[in-house]
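Retro notes, structure queue

What went well: the backlog is down to a handful. What didn't: a couple of records were mislabeled last round, so from now on we paste the full input next to the output in the thread. Example, using Spore coat protein U from Serratia proteamaculans:
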Amino acid sequence: MRQVVLGCGLLALSLAVNADSKTATIGVSATLLKACEAGSSSGGNVSFGSLDFGTVYFLTTSVSVAGQQNAGAIRVKCNNGTSYNVLLNGGQSGNTAARYLKSAAGQQVNYNLYTNSSHSIIWDNLTGVSQTANGQDSWLPVYGMIPVQSTPPIGSYTDTVQVTINW
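Corresponding output:
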């Protein structure tokens, strides 16, 4: 019995001597592409809220409004270092230099949208506003102004402006 035990011990020893190992590597990578998201999404529709001039009685003085978070300001979030451009179309007028709000009866109120609070640069669909992202939310206020004009009949006046973000 001693020989068997000793023989088993030698067999185990010989297996340990013959053991070997191999090492290799696995490559790991990820590719990050330019990406942006914008506005808030509800039911698959992206929205920037509404730029509301409020209740106006007469247009004998100009009326101004500035977009704010979720109310007419444009939220853009792109990954860090991505350059983007935000364009606004002319709404139902089709002309960025001569936008108008329209009533159900077809009456019009002239207005325009600007990139700055001094209302000196019209926000158009060619130049727009360009920025480079830092990876965080960026809120771009839209500045609106209804200039002095003849006051049309009472009613609700609306327009819809398309926002395009290129990156």
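Agreed that this is the format going forward. Reviewer comment attached to the example: The first strand starts at residue 36 and ends at 38.
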